[in-house]
Amino acid sequence: MGIFDKLKLLPGAGKFTSSSPHHHSHLPPLDHDTLAGYGTPAGMGASGGAKDVERTSRATISAQVGAADPRRTHTGRIPAELITPVAVTEHQRRTVAMAVSVLLQYPDENFHDTVAAVEQHVEDLPQAIAEDFREFFSRAYSASLRDVEEHYVETFDQRRRCSLFLSYYAVGDTRQRGMAILAFGEQLRSLGFDFDENDELPDHLCVVLEALGLSEGSSHEQAVEFVASYRDGLEVLRAALEHTDSPYVSLIIAVCRALPRVDAEIAQKYVDLIRTGPPAEVVGIADLPFPTVQPDDL
Fold first, then answer.
1. How many CA atoms lie within 13 A of 292 on its CB side?
2. Whose CB among 74, 246, 251, 252 lies 3.0–4.6 Å from 238's, allowing a Cys bridge?
3. Closest alpha carbon to 269 in 101, 110, 63
């Protein structure tokens, strides 16, 4: 059994059958009347320190975000210092994505067993990324399940800047969020993944990372481009977790290290699509790097 098959079998993983992720959320099920406000976490307070960061010019950040204040998302200011990517193989990137997808799930009674299972698969990762995981493992083992559960809820469910829903960084808690969620679902389906939205929304970071972890070849290249285009939101999340001294920051840093830089124009196309929702009248858009589908097919 390969590493990805093993990780898929862990509690909280997506149990893909016919390319179908099924994430289990501790949040309420989706209701169409709550799309705009669904999942609006907000943060804790403390202090932490970043490691191995690279200063990025404000002009670069401005080009990637393209907002009224280009240095901000809807949840906070994009850090001026971004995590430096490291060279990874496709297999290593997939391992990082699958491992973080599993570890970022709500911690249940199997949490420490899950940590131990994931720990077996990270030693072949680049040294910096492996160290990120080891830091998380160390802090996870030293905490009780109750402490981990309370920290998870206080961090991801009660702090806006620690949202695990990527569309929240693009459009915030607005009416646009419903269309943004549909756009995320369409992009995942274009990569060959289907899922039950009653389990988890398609813009949830665990869902997106699992798709990245299970995709291969050209689909993996598209998935990398898709996830990396939301690097601004991931960096805001990373900075917020650092500020709270959360152990989960090490996992977000690991993801950021495994993602390449994305051309600003491509990143903006993804952000624009999320903000406006999927096209209503066309089957595809020529200048987008993935196919789209008609609403009747959603």
1. 21
2. 252
3. 63
Which residue is listed with tokens 């200063």? Answer: 55
* Mean pLDDT along residues 121-147: 96
Predicted local confidence at residue 194, as pLDDT: 79
pLDDT surpasses 90 at 111: yes
Mean of pLDDT values over 218-235:
88
Grade residue 204 by pLDDT with cuts at 50, 70 and 90: very high
Assign domain 84-276 to a CATH class.
mainly alpha
Domain boundaries, the chain: 84-276
